[in-house]
Please model this.
Amino acid sequence: MFPQFPPGFRFGTSTAAYQIEGAVAEDGRGPSIWDTFTAQPGRIADGTSGAVACDHYHRWEEDVALLKQLGAGGYRFSIAWPRIQPTGSGPANPKGLAFYDRLIDGLLEAGVQPMATLYHWDLPQALEDDGGWLNRDTIDRFADYAAIVGDAFADRVEHWIPINEPNVVTTLGYGIGEHAPGKQLYFDSLHVAHHLLLAHGRAAIALRAAGATSIGCANNHAPVWPASDDDADVGASKLFDTIWNGLFIEPMLLGRYPADFAFMMDDLVQPGDMATIRQPLDFYGVNYYSPVKVAATPDESEMPFEMLEPLGYPVTDRGWAVVPDALREWLIIFRARYRAALPPIMITESGCAYSDEPDANGVVDDQRRIDYLDAHLRAVATAIERGVDVRGYYTWSLMDNFEWAEGLAQRFGLVHIDYETLRRTPKKSFEWYADVIAAQPAERAKNGPTSNL
Model:
């Protein structure tokens, strides 16, 4: 029996522009920090880039047809800032707007509601040359970009997310340099965190002015477990929990930084900043993959903690522990901690990397992905039964794609991509997810709406 959800629960899938679109030098698109980063030797595990990726830019109609076949009620995609404003400022590129105009209309014609992310990590390189997210002026540029996109599409896009995973951008992009733009600033990257939160708020204001009616976030969250009961490990886990979770939750929901960390942010906060960040949210998006185990480090270390993989659990091909109960745990604790300040929740990403290939008959039997999704959907269903208001689940990802620093080697998709031919092959998990959607209550047979968020 498939997991069951309340009527109106939204089933969807997610993608991101740089990971699937390709066509990086076509129709006026400018270079992004990921174009620059992937061109640097040694940055990407397999030496690939998103220059072609899944060629979604030319094959979007085929991909929308797959969404319709899946029965998905929602599709979360990102708009490439360099495709709209090639240098991150100035007038909109008509061909860039036209692409997303066609995509959005195609989704609606297929009965799929769009959820648009404005920034999924592809900062125009020209803005990075001026300091990127370390430069407070980038916030103004982002607000201008949000206004352009909102004016063009707010009448047709159901849900909006200004910025995907600001904690990941801060930590991996500017803290340790694993992602573009590849800076290693450690705690000096807190400037980026504050500027991203401000950009989220400014974009929310611009989108509402353009007529957007549902604005949320997509923050990467995970339970943080200490490596042992030792006071040092417990303290390190609390510090990491504050940096990874609280530093982004509390400003958005409460208009303040966590009390035990606020002193680190005082020099960055200008009058009015926290009110700008604390814009009303119509939903809170949670991206969940795996819990994190944290241990203290020696006093001479650059960072006061190190992250460890939880032991005793199966792992994905990406090496991430599969712990569906941690998602249930986190959702219940999240609700208990923030209660009235917490809007309805959407799981805006949740998925796994398994590198199953087509067999001799062209079948991709990815049973491990089915098991993963089934267990995580059941964890969400249990959280709902315990009183957590979760309105949807968007699995990552619709299709295999360019997986950032890992390149094309990690496969997260419901649809297999042959990177030589770009042929799309729905996997067994695609069929299973379609069956889950079809098996939901009859009064929700069309998978929606959720416009009452």
